[in-house]
Input
Amino acid sequence: MHDLHEKHARSAVTAVELNAVTRLFGANPALVRADVRVAPGEVVVLRGPNGAGKTTVLRIMATALSPTYGHGSVLGFDLVRERDAIRRHTDLMSHRTRLYEDLSAAENLRFWCRLLGVDGADIQAALDRVGLLEVAGERVRGFSQGMRQRVAVARTLLRRPQILLLDEPYTGLDAEAHHAVDDLIREASRDGRAVVVATHHTMQRGLADRVLFMDGGRIVREGEP
Output
């Protein structure tokens, strides 16, 4: 965590900062001159139709994509030059849960804990929090989409990233999984960790701080939830 402390002074006010960021795919712009600021503990929602650029914003913040033009930082780390540092403190979660179907829920979490260097002592507690303790030993292959998403929420609970990026996290969820995502967002914000959510779904009242409305790869306006 020493690298994070070294950047603390620079990231104390802004957890995420994008400055005139543009992303092209060939000649086609997916994102055009986006300016985004997210403070620690803030929950920001991205709204807009399919193809508006919401996922592109999240993937740039997660360093899965690099800006074609413009620049930015996450926790004070440069989006291009310090991608490895950003990835250590950032988690991008979507309805594609990245779970291994032939492993059980608990085995998936143990694998991810080893991969990410996270203490796995709380795996059972994390599964209990998302209502999956009784099926912890069952293979993910037989899980519904809502159950898979709850495993992904448990994984994020164990990792506790400083920047939580959620791409359509409510898609296909049952009510219990929906509440698990809400609790994940609420806990992250309460702990001073920044959250950016791209979603078409209505979020619980009081959960979000700001909404950025997107269309055609542009942030067209900003408002309150």
Observations:
- Residues 175-190 form the longest helix (16 residues).
- The longest strand covers residues 28-38.
